[in-house]
């Protein structure tokens, strides 16, 4: 049972505390405090055929709890937040350590512990911070050359996680993160992760998951990466047949006033009458019989009287700017969504660590207050017997940062099934990119994108503006003229005669409208002569250059500063999504184009030495072979592993 404690000195918090009971949790009954006792525990568990797991960046233990539900025993948890470590140490066996995984010595120690104790599954959700293009170039070199980071250099935390994998080589790895970690212009971190895992002999599967599809009652997207050693096939788990609404999740919890605290401090509780939905019953299934009429941590922050009046005037459709003027304490132009009353008949909005700072985004659907700690935990799928160490602010932060336990359970079960099944994986990014690069050495007899390999940024720009999606007859007649024009270097402009010739040509083939875009671009370049040759083209000064064209130019004609500034943006245009969809046997060309679509393209090009040429060959493949209506599969360099060709 948790107990009340007043600390001698206030610990460090990233945010202001919510006043309330301070929960102190004792260690788990089979927790260990040193390496020797951990090894003894692991030997005992292995003797009973219990698979072992470790959770890095574990937080309170959302993934850990899910993994234990499907038979794993989580014997190692590491995090750098003291209250989260205390929570993990209370709920799980083995060791829970407050260690900094940016430290190379810690990385070595964690990897040695995993290797020594034959831990089978490594889970983690490392934070991913942005970094400079120069730093990206250094990392790219290390990834492509297989060189480990220097021992005395602090790591970006995602690289720390990868190095633990490289040193310990567990049979299975699951990594989760926010989708933004993977979906920047170049998808550099994601492509690095795939490349390094495949170098270590892992098959890799990745997808952006909407957690509500697996029974979590909130809108929450996570990037899930699963890696299995020995090139084993992973199958994505089936989705839940039921959509759990907010009221399905919390409707049984009794009404409470904002700021109310039960007698007894951390041991205090609110009377509870029992569950009424399947989800609520699942949340109560682990509660001790003696606590069946109690609910703990059903507390939230106090409510100001003016906020109470505002909350009572709201429905789930009310925006902050809809409130009466006397209820608006913040600037309307900045805080148009400052308050959000939740819809009881829909999913909850995403619970994030921000809930520790204020709860205005999480106003109860029926009561004029923000969500309680227990309600937030329910929305994250933490069961009612799960307690969180520290004050309410720390509990909210742990809940907001957590992976929903249901997600850990669903994917843990799928991993166990894949390891038992042992089928070989079909997709390898490195092999796919190598096949495309090898095909690049075979000159095409005819191509609808002949400018793709010319390396001249201006000529590629002209061809894309004038000839994109043109009939083959037009391309055959116009491209040779474009190709023979003088090369225009950084800061230069075409002559009036060259422009007039192109206008006449396009008029003769019925594509006059295209020349207007070209003329607009030339006018813009007169004012900004360097703009077309920048690594990232500023479209505010060159609006005639579309986002898609800017990305293609950086891919097909990289800037001179390639080693330090040039990127390899991942394209979803020019038919590459069609190729990825057919090759992998999915529908990413029709839905989720900017998320799973970009992941699918990234899985075909990687970040190895073949990535840029492989990417360009994907464009050619889409234009010449994997066409919309009549694909020529017999000519495709990927046909041996293509799902569409096989069917």
Walk me through this protein's architecture.
The chain is an alpha/beta fold and 647 residues long. Among the domains are: 35-242 and 406-421, 3-Layer(aba) Sandwich (Rossmann fold), CATH 3.40.50; 246-402, Alpha-Beta Complex (DNA Methylase, Chain A, domain 2). The chain is 39% helix and 8% strand. The strands form three sheets. Strands 5-4-3-6-7-9-8 form a seven-stranded mixed sheet, with helices on both faces. It has a two-stranded antiparallel sheet with strand order 1-2. Helix 4 (104-116) runs parallel beside helix 6 and helix 17 (496-508) runs antiparallel to helix 18 (512-527). It is globular, with a radius of gyration of 28 Å. This is Cytosine-specific methyltransferase. It catalyses: a 2'-deoxycytidine in DNA + S-adenosyl-L-methionine = a 5-methyl-2'-deoxycytidine in DNA + S-adenosyl-L-homocysteine + H(+). Belongs to the class I-like SAM-binding methyltransferase superfamily. C5-methyltransferase family.
Summary tags:
23 helices; alpha/beta; Rossmann fold; DNA Methylase, Chain A, domain 2; disordered N terminus; 39% helix; 647 residues; seven-stranded mixed sheet; 11 strands; two-stranded antiparallel ribbon
Short account of what is shown:
It catalyses: a 2'-deoxycytidine in DNA + S-adenosyl-L-methionine = a 5-methyl-2'-deoxycytidine in DNA + S-adenosyl-L-homocysteine + H(+). The protein is of the alpha/beta class.
